Amino acid sequence: MTWARAFGEVVRAGLTIEETRLEPLLALRAAAGVAIVVGPTLWLVSPAYAASAALGAYSAGGATFQRSWRPRKVVALGAGAGLALSTFVGYLAAGRLLTFLPLLAVWAFAAGMAWAVGSTAGIIAATTVGSMLVTITLPTSIGRALEHAGVIALGGVTQAVLILLFPVRRWGAHRDALADGLAAVADYARRLRHDPTAPFDPEPLMTARDAAAVTPSQARTRPAALHGPRGLAERIRPVIAALADPDVGAPAEGPGRDRARELLDAAADVLDAAARSIRRGTPAEVRPESTDVLRVDEEHEVLKGPARQAAERLVELLGEASEIAGSGCAHGRTATPPGPVGAQFLVRPTMLRLVPVVVRAVRRELRRDSPVFRHAVRLAAVATLGYLVAARLPLGHGYWAPIASVMVMRPDFHRTYARAVARLAGTLAGVALATGTVRALGPDAHVSGALAVVSAGLSYTLSRTGYAYSQCFTAAYVVFLLGMGGQTWEQTVPERVVLTLLGGVLAMLAYVVFPAWEAPRLPGRLADWLAADGRYAAAVLRSYAEPSREHHADMRRALLESRQARAAWQETYDRARQEPVRPRGLTSREAQEAQEALKGFGRAAMLMESHVPRAGSRFVPEAERFADALETDTAKAAAAVREHRNPDWGHVEEALHAWGDAAGNGGPVVRREAELEKRALEDLATAVSRTPLERDVGSAREDQRVRAAVATEGDGSGPVHRSG
Predict the structure, then answer these.
(1) Domain Integral membrane bound transporter, which positions (predicted)?
(2) Which of 25, 86, 558, 598 has the fewest CB atoms nearer than 10 Å to its CB?
(3) How far is CA 82 from CA 6, 158, 354, 387, in A?
């Protein structure tokens, strides 16, 4: 992708309105937290203290809108504590560049490394850098610095208390994640009616699993509805895929296919009803037509063999889903059996036990080629450089420039540039709105404080619709807050616009100077995915070779590793397609073909999983040799992909040839899927097996296609064909 096209995509992404459900009650509660802190401090103390209070309450309230599976009150307290600490430590070093600049660089670097833990930690850590830059200008002594830090921390405490006293959809995010997982499987069933080989994106189920991890205290209060249905969705997914597949399930045409479509439609209806029940906490009705379809007539059932087994299994599982939909799942808590919590639940570490987890995560990212490490270096450099540059300008509030840089920077190119565009556009709109309001009303300090609270509430309300739109009211909030302190709009508005533009430009230039392009990482991500898929397929085969609980547990662990590897590949691949760099390692066409091949390989393993015999069933000994060959060859092929060598499937071919036509429980089905796996691996080899000369020619041709597409777009003579 050329720079011109990449920047066009950035502008579109930065100004796109996200279609999401607004949460006005949450926004109202967070805005009330700002008002509760700002009002008394403005009335009883001074505008400076009110500004500190507003910063703590506003930032802590904003932190609760970030995606986190921990209780919102814990997030608010953590954000308030971090803001208070950064304020006090910053003041201790303020006054001399010799002490403050190193502290700012180290603090910003640590904030960048917080992305190793997750996006929520990274975003909250970035706000502490902004707090350090702003509030060190307010105190005049160490005692006053402690007071300001305490007021900021009070903002976080206030938000936490409001969350405790006025819970809004407690466990709502967890309910939504689980309901989205069930709805994704329902959508998959509908697509299978028309396309028996339709792909399935496991991301909703991965999110649901992440949401299912709880701390010991959460485990005691979690609703019973959030413990169990996720496993049901996991079991239904391979069954509906096996039923729809014409090779191992219902025939491609005829009464059997019609019956399969009826069952898939009923499955979608029941799963959607269960999703609605979990999301709302109320009973949801299943259509009578769907209930009738789920009655299997032993005498007149048209499905035979593996297809009938899949249908019977599906009916059994959907019976459980129907019970969930009908119960409403509104009352009761998860029963906690005696013994360690980790034995019954997915355990999330408490805040104290999170410390070693964070340390290990950061240590893993402390390497030059890590996007998180590079992001931390850029953040430290831009924060200090922006502070120095802005201090030399004949403008007040120079800290706005480094704050703008810190708040828009992300570890990847696309989001950094998109947020820079969005912040500038939102700031322009916000200061224009605030300026018009001030000129029309001429508010005093108390009215300005009220307008700031209203702007904060609107910013919270629009926080998930797009950064530009929430930033619009954030900018207005800042103008009103400074007006509360006695500064006129003629002083603040021009400075805000110029310094925001400067901060955005610095953030963009930092990525060009020290980038972390994703394109060179594609071969490594592909290799990780291939190796993980190979282990998953081998684990499934071993469950045929020797059905046991231990092998079933190994299969589940391998599936989760495969999903994580696929998600990592998908994230890298999507980002690489948005970068203005020439493909390295894999061209976009090779990456696309390799991705489709591995999806086919994973689908074959999933179909195999749907017919895995129960523990204690008859063995399929031929599967053991094929599992060993598959795991060996995929591990070697992964190393070959990393080193840009051609993969080889010799052991797989030998094992499959030696297998022959196995009879017995599950033998024909599993062998058919083994053939599909081998075919998918051959497709993968075709996608990535090219000589260096062919690879260079392919990259050159791809560059020519991009240039031709841009030229065509420029003269309007035809469509643009994206090459990624």
Answers:
(1) 386-509
(2) 25
(3) 36, 15, 16, 21
Query: Do 367 and 506 sit in the same domain of this protein?
Result: yes
- Closest CA relative to residue 451, chosen from 469, 432, 438: 438
pLDDT digit string, tens, across residues 460-502:
999 999 999 999 999 999 888 888 876 666 667 788 889 999 9
Contacts of 133 (CB under 8 A, 6+ apart): 90, 104, 383, 387, 399, 402, 403
Integer angstrom CA distances of residue 411 from 53, 377, 417, 673, 723: 30, 10, 11, 40, 24
Per the domain annotation, does 12 fall within a domain?
no
Q: Phi and psi dihedrals of 333, rounded to 5?
A: -115, 160
- Joined together, the tokens standing for residue 405 give 């840089």
Beta partners for residue 223, in sequence order: 333
Q: What is the pLDDT of residues 550-581, one digit of tens each?
A: 888 999 999 999 999 999 999 999 999 999 98
pLDDT at 716: 44
Q: Are residues 226 and 123 in the same domain?
A: no
Cα–Cα distance between 25 and 162 in angstroms, integer?
12
585 in the same domain as 528: yes
Which domain-ending residue is among 343, 363, 383? 343
Instruction: Answer yes or no: is pLDDT of 262 > 60.
Output: yes
- Dist CA 686 CA 681 (whole Å): 9
- Structural domain ending residue among the three candidates 323, 343, 363: 343
Is residue 313 located within the same domain as residue 384? no
pTM: 0.88
Please indicate, yes or no, whether residues 313 and 401 belong to a single structural domain of this protein. no
Cα separation of 645 and 690, whole Å?
A: 8
- In the chain, the N- to C-terminal Cα span, in Å, equals 6
Query: Would you call 242 exposed, middle or buried from its count of C-beta atoms within 10 A (0-12, 13-18, 19+)?
Result: buried
Angle at the Cα of 54 from the Cα atoms of 53 and 55, rounded to 5 degrees: 90
Q: Examine residue 602 and state whether it is found in any structural domain, yes or no.
A: yes
Domains of the chain: total: 3
